[in-house]
Amino acid sequence: MLDEDLSDIPMTVAGLLAAYRSGATTPAAVIARVLEKIRERGDDGVWITVADRAMLDARLREVADLPRDLPLWGIPFGVKDSLDVRGWPTTLACPGWSRVATDTAPAVQALLDAGAVMIGKNNLDQFATGLNGTRSPYGIPRSVFDDEMISGGSSSGSAVAVALGEVPFAVATDTAGSGRVPPALNGIPGFKPSRGLISTVGLVPACRSLDCVSLIAGTVDDLATVFDVVSGVDERDAWSRPRRRTTMPAPEARIGLPEADELDFFGDDAVRQAHLAARDAIAGAFPERRQVPLAPFLAAGELLYQGPWVAERYLEFGDFMAGHPDAVHPVVAGIIASGAQYTAVDVFRAQYRMAELRAEVGRIFEEVDVLVLPTIGTTFTVAQVLADPVATNTTLGHYTHFGNLLDLCALTVPTGVTADGRPSAAMILGPALSDDLVLRVGAAVAALPHALAPVH
């Protein structure tokens, strides 16, 4: 057991930095608590690889020699196991594919340079394919709300580790909602920046033209702190672009809300009632509100798995699957294999349609600054997902699939609980490069009375 009682110190970036500066604790004591919490939970599917005590002691000695005013000095964090860290295995939750990385992803290196302490690599849906968190040979992480409920995916372990208070933040990914659905199902914030603001070098791609590095943390303020550290142009990343700083105060943002009748909760009245109550609170906090159509967003989302973008996954993993057919989760294999059917004609047809939808959505964002939607329309148990893996996954991505296709940035924030005790979350979306405003609006939404207290 730990000799030092750290129960009164918030497991957040801001809370730990304040405690370090006041002398209330030290990075060594915090890391010891982290390891103890992980050990006590045992094999819960949250972590694939955890640093041993000798590795962490060596890192703590390095941190001790760094300036104490670094933005993440002594802060522990997790890394989704699709990002490379030199000397660590990158598994993608597929032991047969696994290899030891020879370089560190720039996003992770920026965190280390800022004084952070990497605890380990988090579990994920295999090959980052899935929004449910059930597709990994390393176990099935469960939502912190209910052991029968899915954690969400593919950044399953990342979200659960943060929600449990094992680490204050984790670096994850988002192609179709992987950095938003798991936080929503675990009552914490998750941020998908505009594509290209965080380097994807060192990320094993799922869909190279859509992939984003995402961030998961216990508070929106912590997300903003970490985003400041990891955002930056990387000439090695073909999609890299500079961040556009915006100073608009959150209360001045024009909020877009679709008609309530356009929202689909898939027969889940408890989630519907919770979201509509949160939506009323959000509407009351922002004077400038406009009604916007939801149809073009959903039309774009339907193209993700019904269109040729899935061929990008086949391009990345098709050869491995052909040579190792028994190494891949059967549902993941089926999804990836479907990418082989598309032709160049299919690709151009889908691109033309997507250009039309992007133009239509662009006109909507001339009238509003951000759009507010549910993050998920319902929740599922592990048993429900295993019984019907494709349909349930499609439902989970109803409000997230279109984000990267339309070149949006997005933030999910907790908005309380349903009448039967499940998490409710709202998603704030903005056009590309409106990240700063989206974070400010999200912080204001999280501060409303409906905001969910940390579960851990």
Automatic annotation (TrEMBL):
Q: Which Pfam families match?
A: Amidase (PF01425)
- Asked if the keyword Hydrolase belongs to this entry, the reply reads yes
Q: Where's the Amidase domain?
A: 67-439
Provide the protein name: Allophanate hydrolase
Instruction: Please name the Gene3D superfamilies in this protein's record.
Output: 1.20.58.1700, Amidase signature (AS) domain
Keywords on this record? Hydrolase
Name the enzyme group at the top EC level: hydrolase
GO MF annotations, alphabetized: allophanate hydrolase activity
Might you give the EC number(s) for this enzyme?
3.5.1.54
The organism of origin for this protein: Nakamurella alba
TM region positions: none
